[in-house]
Write a structure and sequence with these properties.
The structure holds two protein chains of two kinds. Chain A contains 24 helices and 51 strands. By secondary structure, chain A is of the alpha+beta class. In chain B, strand 1 and strand 2 form a beta hairpin. Classes of the chains: A alpha+beta, B mainly beta.
């Protein structure tokens, strides 16, 4: 195919040469070129290999609908499947063709084409079934993936995208003739308007075709310039260019993607695409139409192109891909191409029309006759032939005779479809137009207006009245635009979906989906095999399931199916058009919500100290908590945890508990409210005392636990688990608002306002005395489960005597800003007593030795307080609290519920594993009755062996008996079921 | 995504809200004897109609207030929002004008895009 440059083009800067590389070879294009137009300028049309058969493929279209010309942009993180027809070139761009090896010209995979008679629809489903399930995963799938497919995944992708929100009255999608006219009516009105166009230049068919000869008695280009200026000057209209609307959601919510680097290389570290999230009152769809292709033998050869695309290359890119293309059409849409070619001094090699001479527009007839273009009416192309490019075609003329025409380019037009993709995404209904042979928008589901060819108006006669009628709900001025056309025609089309090949051959292929290599034969076969419902057929044949979603072919498929089934197309229906309209990258969807911004990281005020002191962190909810502290790089986690826990038992340890949820509850009715929320009764509790409390769901299951400090009947401070803080606050608010709005009570999170340090161990009292010399820490003055407010160096602090380790312990609550100061002070005075920090893992071990549960680890939403042996925490005299009635449900009073017990290995040297089942038999013989499972399991250096907590059926009655725990090596370990407390059962150390 | 009209803050994006399930489910009075069935229905049983539905929402990332609404579960349209202490609107006041988009295609699941 020999292309020629048509100088005189306003969009291509012919003085500005740009060099780029395609498959390693350097070529030149001009500023304004897309990859496709630049390649065509260099007479390259073979740009890729097809998905399944590795057939040579060329540039088929000139826009977003492109099925074939997908390339990998090496110079942009190796971005795959980029449409060559829309991506603009820039200096130094590197492009690679896809799905070929070792080279595009000589592709090994094209051997698939030889075997193609067996690669029919459902081939994979039927073939790769046996002999074993594993064959698919380990052999077939990797092989098929290697052989079939599109581009390779990008490497080290670092594209940055941001999100912008819009809230407007009207969004006009498409800045073509109708979009501009609609926008023009809104100039200086009271509506906020957003005009979105996918291209760099507004204008649509004014730029892309030869259809219009004048608008309002002006040259279309001059009118366009003036109109755009007027729209730009209007303060209420904002224009987004290079922006593609991909998604039309409920409630007029649109998503559009803007390319920020059109025609230049994205700069690393800069936002290269913007995702626009648009809320709009009304959406006006002016997104035009898409031309269809036609199916005949080898309709995929490089050199075959849609006729409107050829025209667009001429008008928009100053390039005729071929000097003398053959045109094959069944409708009037390609008239303007004939006109454009002749105007440019070129001549079609032949014009072939399936319509009869009477149906062909008289002025086209005259034009063709006058210029001696060979005309074939009532004729069809039986096939195209050539080696990696089109060389000749076979035409069956009206007499049935076969004519061979040598050519290097074939322009196809199978009719046009309104681009209904967005309209159907919005759930609008379509209707089949038997005259124009296409689906057209009928009933909108949302406030959606369609204009121009997007609404199925393929003629220009009613332009003004149609727009005025559809925009009459708005207070805007009426339009009166005068249009004159070059090819004065009404849209006319004859039904033609497919031309059957001349010779029947297993290798003859008429494609219906170019991207997924689906042939019309596959459609026939699928119907024969019973897949006659259109959605089944789509999935079985993979028709229109490529990244182009069959934009130029899906209606043809419906036509073929309707003929085969002898049904109307309306009865066949259409498959669902799903968002996005065209692929958009995950990075665009993620926006800035990635890497460190993916999920907020919450850090305690002591975080930097932890880092300096060798902390290894664990994620607890969004919090970063020290898991354990490494004293040197070689210390293993096990060693660190044992060292830390031993130090707590022997000396003292300090834990940063700042992440604990803290909720302040105040109000006249705070006491009554707390009594309703928690299981415990707080009525008789003294001021200044604290209580371990449980919170249940209405189903009676343990939801959260914490320590409640009663400052007065009107003022409480509750702690929650680290992960449960938001839920607990949410639950309190819900009940305060919805169930007990009569109670005067307010609650607020104070989690981040206060840091919490838990110091525990036998030497804690000495440390506290030294750290806070003016406070009396004696047992009499400061008993267990009480708290006191103090001031230390001007800092208000609250100290609570409580413990989660079983040792003497205090919790200090300090305003976050002052926390590091006090933390450092405690560290320095504690040194002589052996105070060392410990992490969450040692804390878990220490609490498990005491049998203290962790909600969410030892409970799983199906465990009541009774199951945990915590009946003493239930305020039985209380009339009501969350979940109270559920504790007397038939299910919760069952005898054989799972209950919390302790487990130790019968042979002390044996290991236990978390999550393993407790069973009765040593031998595992299925079915194995499962009693329950191990919820927490640790090695304790204090005990000298493994121990575990478990929830098992009727567990309390089994205490003192033996059972077995399963192991990950499919064996069993003998275990003793014991009370769930392993250390200091009488709490002597706690209250010492 | 929906736009929800918070009775306290005005129209806001759905992402600011959390759904709280069926509205106007009365919690049985704990001071009285409650039968197993009555309690069980309160805890576990909720209506799940296709069509108009009283529903609770909370403006989680906003004023944190709970409120009620009437939502058409077939179209997702929220017809009215009202404060907790307001009387619940009569469902007869609302009509589902549009046929449900998910609604009962005669042939093939895709066919709802085609007008019959």
């Amino acid at each position: 195919m020999k292309s020629i440059n048509l100088k005189k083009n306003q969009f291509i800067q012919f003085h500005q040469k740009i060099s780029f590389k395609f498959d390693g070879v350097k070529y030149f294009g001009y500023k304004g070129d897309t990859i496709a137009s630049a390649l065509l300028r260099n007479n390259i049309n073979l740009v890729g290999r097809s998905f399944k058969y590795h057939r040579p493929r060329g540039i088929y279209t000139c826009g977003i609908e492109e099925p074939n010309a997908l390339v990998q942009i090496i110079s942009e993180y190796s971005e795959p499947n980029t449409r060559a027809t829309i991506k603009k070139i820039y200096e130094g761009m590197e492009i690679e063709s896809q799905n070929r090896w070792p080279s595009l010209e000589n592709d090994f995979g094209s051997i698939n084409n030889l075997f193609s008679p067996i690669f029919t629809a459902g081939f994979y489903y039927k073939t790769f079934m046996g002999p074993h399930k594993k064959f698919w995963k380990n052999l077939y799938e990797p092989l098929i993936r290697r052989a079939a497919g599109l581009g390779k995944p990008p490497k080290d992708f670092k594209g940055i995208s941001n999100h912008i929100h819009h809230n407007v009255d009207i969004t006009i999608i498409g800045g073509g003739l109708n979009g501009l006219l609609a926008a023009k009516s809104f100039i200086n009105s009271n509506y906020d308007v957003l005009l979105i166009d996918f291209e760099e230049q507004l204008g649509g068919i004014i730029n892309n075709s030869n259809k219009l000869s004048s608008i309002d008695n002006k040259e279309p280009k001059d009118w366009l310039k003036e109109t755009i200026q007027e729209i730009e000057d209007s303060k209420n209209i904002k224009i987004l260019k290079n922006t593609l609307v991909t998604t039309y959601n409920y409630i007029n919510h649109l998503i559009a993607i803007e390319d920020r680097f059109v025609g230049s290389k994205p700069i690393e570290g800069k936002v290269n695409s913007t995702l626009h999230k648009i809320r709009t009152g009304h959406t006006i769809l002016c997104n035009g139409h898409i031309e269809r292709f036609l199916s005949f033998q080898n309709n995929d050869l490089p050199g075959i192109m849609l006729s409107s695309s050829f025209e667009k290359y001429m008008c928009r890119y100053g390039l005729a891909p071929s000097k003398e293309p053959v045109i094959f059409s069944n409708n009037s849409n390609s008239n303007s191409l004939v006109y454009g070619l002749i105007k440019a001094g070129l001549k079609p090699k032949a014009y072939i029309d399936s319509r009869s001479g009477e149906e062909i527009e008289p002025n086209l007839f005259d034009l063709i006759r006058k210029n001696d273009v060979p005309l074939y009416t009532n004729s069809q192309i039986k096939g195209a032939f050539g080696n990696k490019k089109i060389e000749k075609i076979l035409v069956e003329d009206s007499s049935g005779a076969l004519n061979e025409i040598k050519c290097d380019c074939l322009c196809l037009s199978g009719g046009i479809n309104p681009d209904v993709h967005l309209f159907t995404q919005s759930k609008g209904l379509l209707d089949w137009d038997e005259k124009d042979l296409t689906y057209k928008p009928s009933k909108p589901f949302q406030p959606t207006i369609t204009l121009g060819s997007a609404s199925g108006q393929f003629n220009f006669d009613n332009l003004n009245s149609d727009i005025n009628e559809k925009l009459k709900t708005f207070k805007v001025k009426k339009l009166d635009v005068k249009l004159e056309l070059n090819t004065n025609t009404k849209y006319n089309i004859e039904k033609l979906w497919e031309v059957s090949p001349q010779k029947k051959s297993l290798w003859a292929k008429s494609f219906i989906d170019l991207q997924n290599d689906v042939t019309t034969k596959d459609i026939r076969q699928a119907i024969t095999e019973g897949f006659d419902r259109i959605e089944h057929l789509k999935r079985y044949t993979t028709n229109s399931m490529g990244t182009d979603q069959g934009k130029i072919s899906s209606i043809n498929a419906l036509g073929i199916v309707s003929d085969l089934l002898d049904k109307k197309v309306n009865e066949v229906g259409t498959t669902i058009y799903r968002p996005p309209y065209a692929p958009l990258s995950f990075s665009a969807i993620a926006g800035r919500n990635c890497y460190e911004f993916y999920d907020p990281e919450r850090k305690s005020p002591i975080h930097s100290w932890h880092i300096k002191n060798g902390a290894i962190f664990e994620d607890v909810g969004q919090w970063k908590r020290p898991w354990y502290f490494q004293i040197n790089k070689d210390e293993s986690m096990h060693d660190a945890v044992q060292r830390e826990s031993k130090n707590v038992r022997e000396n003292a340890g300090i834990l940063d508990g700042s992440t604990l949820g803290k909720i302040e509850i105040k109000g006249e009715d705070a006491l009554e409210f707390m009594n309703l929320i928690y299981t415990n009764s707080f009525t008789k509790m003294k001021q200044g005392s604290a209580r371990y409390a449980l919170m249940l769901g209405e189903d009676g299951m343990v939801k959260d636990d914490g320590i409640i400090c009663k400052i007065s009947d009107q003022h409480f401070i509750a702690t929650t688990t680290t992960g449960g803080a938001a839920t607990v606050l949410g639950c309190m608010e819900e009940y305060a608002q919805t169930e007990w709005p009569n109670l005067k009570v307010f609650m607020n999170s104070i989690t981040e306002q206060y840091a919490t340090f838990n110091i525990s161990g036998p030497k804690t009292r000495e440390i506290m005395k030294k750290a806070f010399p003016n406070i009396n820490f004696s047992n009499e003055e400061f008993p267990f489960m009480t708290f006191q407010f103090h001031e230390f160096n001007g800092i208000p602090i609250r100290i609570l005597r409580a413990s989660f380790t079983g040792e003497l312990g205090y919790e200090i609550y300090i305003p976050s800003n002052s926390a590091p100061k006090i933390w450092d002070n405690i560290q320095s005075v504690g040194k002589e007593f052996g105070l060392a920090p410990y992490g969450t893992e040692a804390m878990h071990l220490l609490r498990a030795e005491k049998g203290y549960i962790i909600v969410g680890q030892d409970t799983d939403g199906s465990i009541t307080p009774i199951d945990l042996g915590l009946s003493w925490m239930i305020g039985k005299s209380k009339k009501d609290f969350l979940g109270k009635r559920s504790l007397a449900r038939p299910d919760t009073i069952r005898e054989d519920r799972k209950q919390l017990v302790g487990i130790i290995p019968s042979n002390k040297a044996d290991k236990l594993e978390e999550g393993q089942h407790i069973i009765l038999d040593k031998e595992i013989k299925s079915p194995v009755p499962m009693l329950g499972h191990i919820t927490s399991c640790y090695y304790s250096s204090t005990l000298g062996h493994d121990f575990a907590l478990a929830i098992i059926k009727n567990g309390r009655s089994m205490i003192g008996t033996k059972a077995y725990a399963s192991t990950s090596s499919m064996g069993t370990t003998g275990v003793d079921i014991v009370k769930p407390v392993f250390y200091d059962e009488n709490n002597k150390r706690l209250v010492s | 995504m929906l736009i929800i009209n918070c009775p306290y803050c005005g129209p806001r994006d759905q992402s600011e809200f959390s759904n709280g399930g069926e509205a106007h489910v009365k919690r049985p009075d704990g001071s009285k004897e409650i039968g197993d069935r009555e309690w069980g229905e309160y805890v576990f049983i909720r209506a799940n109609p296709k069509g108009l539905f009283y529903e609770r929402w909370v403006h989680t990332h906003g004023c944190r207030k709970w409120f009620n609404c009437v939502r058409d579960t077939s179209t997702d349209e929220i017809l009215v929002t009202y404060k907790l202490d307001e009387k619940k609107p009569n469902l007869n006041n609302f009509k589902s004008v549009v046929k449900t988009p998910s609604g009962e295609p005669e042939v093939g699941s895709g066919n709802f895009t085609v007008e019959k």
